[in-house]
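Section 5: illustrative case.
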């Protein structure tokens, strides 16, 4: 720690599993941008360059790029029959990968190591090797997560995380239930984002309609996020088919990109349901234009099987767009049923369709949900709440190290 005449500056090495930008990196970038630089000096470690690392450099943050192998790899990178060989390679090089990080810790006199995802372990081991306190911020479940390909039994992951961490941060209470062995070290800090000023929703709707060749009079219902099985776009599409039976003047957007194999399955489902004229696969959407999109749609649908939090939900509510979500974990803590949104059972397309139809047929009620939603997310999920919560956890760890 750097001691100044009136305070102590804490040096923190933040470890990200990827230098690019997804949900976990988005919240980390928010933290790096807003952390109290008079009390904390952040450093960033990534396995590759990308938007996260580039943005951090623009903030004047020191960025280190070192090799990492995910001890919980994604299904897209390691198939089931590749797990054993991947595990062997990972274990053979784990010590050298961790040693490379110990040099960063020692050379920069790091006071605390903060790993921002469950999927990489090198930072935690390097912290143990240098007797540096370690905080693990977990954004995802390992058990039952269709995006991850675990190499070890689940209890071993929890045990190792427990051994290597002074404390563990979760982004929702529902996520903590996936890690019962970590109960005594659990801290819950809800994600926070910078929210925009109010949008002119009529203007935003017309702009989005024009962009996608939709009639201004048509309603727009969208699923927004990366294309992956956990998001359960099949339930969304089946619900869209049901909605179409009641209201032919609705267009459905699937916004995001993903693996070609899964995207092809979505396209096949669209064709099989006869939805080619009412469903648009938009592909990737610019991150800096996400609020323009969300303000322009009439309803956001989250049809996921499992969500640890639900960043897109708070983004939609921030621009007063009502949300229908499955009861898939985190969204149940974000949405207040009937007050800021509607919640339905997982994998129940008819129930999902019924909720969407209710909002489309009752625009005043939908508007009230959106207004209440904005007020709620501004009060509960602000950047200030998020950053202060993380800072307090770090200070508490160092106080009792």
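Designed sequence:
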């Amino acid at each position: 720690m750097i001691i100044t005449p009136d305070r102590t500056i804490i040096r923190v090495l933040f470890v990200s599993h990827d230098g690019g930008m997804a949900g976990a990196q988005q919240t980390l970038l928010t933290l790096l941008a807003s952390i109290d630089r008079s009390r904390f000096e952040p450093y960033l470690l990534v396995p590759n360059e990308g938007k996260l690392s580039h943005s951090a450099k623009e903030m004047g943050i020191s960025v280190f790029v070192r090799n990492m192998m995910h001890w919980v790899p994604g299904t897209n990178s390691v198939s089931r029959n590749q797990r054993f060989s991947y595990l062997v390679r990972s274990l053979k090089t784990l010590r050298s990968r961790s040693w490379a990080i110990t040099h960063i810790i020692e050379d920069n006199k790091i006071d605390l190591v903060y790993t921002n995802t469950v999927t990489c372990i090198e930072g935690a081991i390097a912290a143990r090797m240098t007797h540096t306190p370690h905080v693990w911020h977990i954004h995802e479940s390992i058990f039952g997560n269709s995006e991850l390909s675990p190499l070890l039994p689940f209890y071993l992951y929890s045990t190792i995380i427990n051994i290597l961490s002074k404390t563990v941060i979760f982004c929702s209470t529902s996520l903590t239930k996936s890690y019962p062995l970590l109960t005594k070290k659990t801290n819950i800090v809800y994600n926070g984002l910078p929210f925009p000023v109010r949008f002119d929703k009529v203007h935003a709707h017309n702009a989005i309609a024009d962009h996608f060749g939709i009639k201004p009079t048509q309603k727009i219902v969208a699923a927004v996020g990366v294309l992956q099985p956990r998001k359960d776009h099949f339930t969304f599409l089946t619900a869209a088919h049901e909605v179409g039976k009641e209201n032919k003047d609705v267009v459905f957007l699937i916004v995001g990109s993903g693996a070609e194999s899964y995207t092809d399955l979505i396209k096949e489902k669209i064709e099989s349901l006869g939805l080619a004229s009412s469903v648009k696969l938009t592909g990737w959407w610019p991150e800096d234009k996400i609020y323009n999109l969300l303000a322009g749609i009439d309803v956001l649908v989250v049809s996921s099987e499992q969500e640890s939090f639900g960043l897109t939900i708070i983004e939609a509510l921030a621009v007063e767009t009502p949300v229908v979500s499955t009861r898939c974990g985190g969204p149940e803590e974000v949405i207040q049923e009937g007050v800021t949104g509607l919640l339905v059972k997982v994998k129940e397309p008819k129930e999902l369709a019924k909720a969407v139809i209710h909002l489309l047929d009752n625009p005043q009620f939908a508007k009230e949900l959106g207004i209440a939603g904005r007020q709620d997310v501004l009060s509960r999920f602000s950047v200030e709440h998020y950053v202060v919560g993380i800072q307090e956890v770090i200070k508490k760890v160092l106080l009792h190290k």
